[in-house]
Amino acid sequence: MTGMATNTEQASLEFADQTLLGTDGGAEQGPIIRVDSVWKIFGRNPERVLGSEHSSKSKPELQSELGVVIGLSDVSFEVQKGETFVIMGLSGSGKSTMVRCLIRLIEPTSGSIFIDGHDVTAMDDKRLMEFRRDKIAMVFQHYGLMPHRNVLENASWGLEVLEMVGLGGWEMSYPRQLSGGMQQRVGLARALVVNTDILLMDEPFSGLDPLIRRQMQDELLRLQEELQKTIVFITHDLNEALKLGSRIAIMQDGRVVQIGSPEDIVLRPEDQYVGDFTQDVRLESVLTASRVMVTPKATVLGHQGPRAALHTIADSDGDAAWIVDRRQRYIGILTIAKANQALRAGINRLDLGLGYVDQGYETVSPDTTFDVLIPLAMASDYPVPVTDRDNKLVGEIHRSALAEALAETSTADQDFEANVAANAALAAETEAELEYDSG
Ligand SMILES: Nc1ncnc2c1ncn2[C@@H]1O[C@H](COP(=O)(O)OP(=O)(O)OP(=O)(O)O)[C@@H](O)[C@H]1O
């Protein structure tokens, strides 16, 4: 973090206000945030860098030659509604500058920023204040709590929200009486109670113990599942980025060097920098169900009888069928043995409560990682059912597919190393040729 924290914490308090913005032309379609060629140059006369021969120089070169510091260098990205977009990079790479430029807590030197269809860079001060208050909530590493107000007051009367972040019963406590993790929960509650679509989170969990930090990450994932906010999340921790991000932008020296899903970043790093960053990541933590799920082979409607189910199972070459309702919502699994039992018992509808349909198997979502999938697949004699947000059965995962995907991707990894080596050799050759030509 830089010395900007104090200002922005104050700003975050301003945002804890309940007024709602009118429906003035927010775009429904397309990205909710669009950042287009944004530069931030700290120092005197930053304009002299833009569009000049200087703009292609490296950060250290500019610093020593012109005494300016590149905060952001030609940054562009889009964030879709409901996405958790993570900006990741080492200290000084420009993450905080970027997130502050989004709402002009730092003024970008050039470029444009659109949020929900509004041109943020064109707003006057009054409009900008309203806009921040109504559209954006922020959570920072230093919770920004008011020490003389209790938890309930700090979270602006959000009883229900306090319950949601696990602080029920602590309403009357003061910040000093809470642990770091709990204070961060208050910060989160306060951001949620404002009920904005967009949440900006700058290293919110960085000050916490590893265990508490993991709990807070899980908490955020759980809340996000429910609330579907658009979150821009800043972190310098790759594992945190991979765990939370729908997509991740990796920054280095003010530039975005790659944007992609966790899987893209780990399996298809675009340069050596990203490759070095991600080389120790366990594949199981980034590969997801969507990669290996296939169309469910045998599905049977609950009101169909065991005879129909046995036919479907026979056609599928498997030894069980998924039972779903008319809207394809997952109910459970029916094995051949149970279908035969039901048939012998003269049952003609597989309604629940009769003990034929087994509901004991856990379902996963397309985003579930292999870390979670593998133990489930190992513990079951049947494929793992995959359901979407509406509990519709969208796929099944076979144990063998998990092993195959892991084998495939670790080979891809070796290919990457070979590619980087080949690229480096090519670059060296080209350089040698150029030197030869010019000499
Ligand atoms: N007010 C400022 N004046 C001059 N340079 C600044 C200012 N704020 C940031 N910088 C510089 O801009 C660059 C990006 O800083 P920024 O704080 O955005 O990085 P960061 O990735 O958020 O780092 P950290 O994780 O340490 O917070 C750094 O080189 C920093 O020194």
Summarize the structure.
The protein is 40% helix and 20% strand.
Question: How would you describe the overall organization of this protein?
Answer:
- It comes from Geodia barretti.
- It holds the Pfam family CBS.
- One of its GO terms (cellular component) is membrane.
- One of its GO terms (molecular function) is ATP hydrolysis activity.
- This is Glycine betaine transport ATP-binding protein OpuAA.
- This protein has a six-stranded mixed beta sheet with strand order 6-7-8-3-9-10, with helices on both faces. Strands 2-1-4-5 form a four-stranded antiparallel beta sheet.
- α13 runs antiparallel to α14.
- β7, α8 and β8 form a beta-alpha-beta unit.
- 40% of the residues lie in helices and 20% in strands.
- The two termini are 47 Å apart.
- By secondary structure, the chain is of the alpha/beta class.
- The protein is built from 16 helices and 15 strands.
- The N terminus is likely disordered.
- The chain is globular.
- Adenosine-5'-triphosphate binds next to β2 and α3.
Content of β-strand: 15-25%
Structural class assignment: alpha/beta
Bound molecules: adenosine-5'-triphosphate
Q: Which range best describes the helical content: under 10%, 10-25%, 25-40%, 40-55%, 55-70% or over 70%?
A: 25-40%
Shape: globular
**Number of discrete helical segments:** 16
* Number of separate strands: 15
Q: What is the radius of gyration? A: 26 Å
Low-confidence stretches: 1-28
Q: Oligomerization state of this entry?
A: single chain
The average pLDDT value, as a whole number, equals 82
Between the first and last Cα atoms, what is the distance in angstroms? Answer: 47 Å
With strands numbered from the N-terminus, the spatial order across the biggest sheet is 6-7-8-3-9-10
Largest β sheet strand count, sense and barrel closure: 6 strands, mixed
Pfam family, one: CBS
Keywords: Amino-acid transport, ATP-binding, Nucleotide-binding, Transport
GO molecular function, one term: ATP binding
Protein name: Glycine betaine transport ATP-binding protein OpuAA
